[in-house]
Amino acid sequence: MITLEHVSFSYANGQPSVKDVSFHLPKGEFAAILGPNGAGKTTTVRLVDGLLQPAEGRVMIDGSDLRESRVSDRARKVGFLFQNPDRQICKNTVREEILFGLRTVRPDLSEEALQARAEETLADFSFTGKEEPFSLSRGQRQRVALASILAVEPEVLILDEPTTGLDYRECCHIMDRIRKMNEEKQVTILMVCHDMEVVLDYARQALVMADGRLLACGPIRDIFRDTALMEQASVLPPQMIGLGLRLGGTFLEADTPDAMADALIASLRKGGTEK
Q1: Domain parsing of the chain, residue ranges
Q2: pTM score, two decimals?
């Protein structure tokens, strides 16, 4: 569903931000891009969305080169949730916000169909539609922005730090809804996120970047357990994986509190109390 082939990009100052990046994500994948600030993560997802055009190489969505597609076609295929929802919201009510996206991106639908889809989306996100977006909390505004994207039913969803500024409950609301869409509708997810606990809980694949280059791509738990790679990318693994790496042995596979407790109990029963 997402393919980058030897993609490079530089901003106006001439400093390369992405250097010869190649990867492939199949339909229905849930992947996270990891790396320090300045690694090229946000630039990469903006290239995937078509907001930026590569200086070299090509970006393909579902087999089609983005340079050969119209903006309207890209908007139907790829949704982009910004880090700051206030940069996406532009209407006075939640209903108007959802309908704005639908009318802009889905002109093929009748007004009756548009209204029906808006009602379905409002109910799915527990909104009445009368709410004024800018009177809502940060987490609720993020839900409004996400609702307006999902109403269009994109095949790819790009998330740029979707949990920034959210408390634990708001974070779970957003990420659980995204996971549901990924699992039930096979929407391909590509996420930039600095919260490694969120990455471990939701993503299945990881792309690791540093200095504009892709260092590795693979299953999320394998990536987190590669200590040399994590050090090279200046990434600290999630707490449970980090603890398992320090303890070693049977603890290496424990990546949740429950799994860690089970491993500890099993170790104590075997008499392995040194650690």
Answers
A1: 2-229, 238-275
A2: 0.88
**Per-residue pLDDT tens for 188-246?**
999 999 899 999 999 999 999 999 999 999 999 999 999 999 999 999 999 989 988 88
144 in Cβ contact with 87 (< 8 Å): no
- Give, in order, the Cα–Cα distances in Å from 13 to each of 17, 47, 171: 10, 18, 36
Question: Are residues 20 and 7 in contact, defined by beta-carbon separation less than 8 angstroms?
Answer: yes
Interior/surface letters 181-196, b for 16+ CB within 10 angstroms, e for the rest: bbeeeebbbbbbbebb
d(CA 268, CA 270): 5
CA distance 151 to 27: 19
Which residue do the tokens 């049977």 mark? 250
| Cβ burial, residue 236 (10 Å; 0-12/13-18/19+) | exposed
157 within 8 A of 2, measured Cβ to Cβ = no
**CATH class held by domain 2-229:** alpha beta
